[in-house]
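ARCHIVE CARD
Drawer: 12
Card no.: 0347
Subject: one protein chain, sequence and derived structure
Cross-reference: see card 0346
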Amino acid sequence: MSITLRERDLTGFFQVPFEVYPADSPYVSPMLADLQRYLDPALNPLMRDGGGQLTYFTAYRDHRPIGRLVVHTHPASNARHGTRRCQFGFFDCADDVEAARALFDAAEAFARDQGCDELAGSFNLTAMQQSGVLTGGFDETPYTDMIWGPAYLPDLLRDCGLGPTFPMSTFEFEVGPGTADSLLGDRQRAILDGDGWTWAPIDRRHFKARFEEARQCLNDGFADNPMFVPLSPAEFDFQAGEMMWFIDPRIACLVRYKGEPAGVIICIPDLNPFQKATRGRIGLMTLVHFLKARLRRRRAVIIFYSVKQALHGRGVNGAMLHRVIKALYAGGYRRCGVTWVSDQNQASLRQMEKLGARRLHRLHLFRKALA
């Protein structure tokens, strides 16, 4: 039977990975409620406030959902970087070329209708969220905010005329008693010893204020990074606001210099075991799964770290990581993941070397120029 496409079919869209990936695969679904709000233009500030356009497609064969794809525009990104790019994301599919081509034909038609001259992804939904297509490390278990896909997905993308670009990696390091000390030098010790530097907890009581400071550090520190677009308060809250309910204040870190926010590390417990157990749905057993995951947590993940540009080269990042890793070890965590780092980011790659981190996954963006 031939492939049929349905547009804005959330039920089938959500079901695709459960239909096409084995139950014991490393894939972890986002929660259905989160997916629903990401894809709702009336709720997502990227579309609601930023003028972006979004739709999504589900591919069916024999009435079975076997492929999915989101496609959207990000006007602020195109204006900032001088592109006319349309972005795709949430690409999951059976090993079925016909289904993949149907999805990307629809995406290209959407992109052309929006006046775009290239299609690139995967972005779920921006460069500050999940990015990339897995091209190596297929057997490795992902942490929260890491993408997983089977080994045939890059081949499907090539069959659809998309080519790899912008290589990235995720990392994992052991949280041992000596890991934190590997980052210490004279500059880091000077920061840890005070002299204008103060540390602020990121807890529920101060969450809103601390996360606004975190946003300022992120926007300033990442300003020159490829593909970065400063996040508005509404976008940052939309993407990160729910962390308030599961953040561990011992392992998140915000530092001020002379009273002003200087740097931040957002590190959280790895939620993937909980989400894997729930299969992305809230039900009668959700609280039980959450409590089990909380009692057994030994893995954490650094979602991002950023230091304001005026303080680059002062050892701030090493000092923050030192504090976070010591807190991780004291809190019983034994492994920590780091979300994607591009091959262009030599400073972060050197930090990974100091930590003795191993590469967990290899990822690329995939791109196609549209005639």
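Annotation on reverse: The two ends are 31 Å apart (CA to CA). The chain has two domains: 4-169, 176-333.
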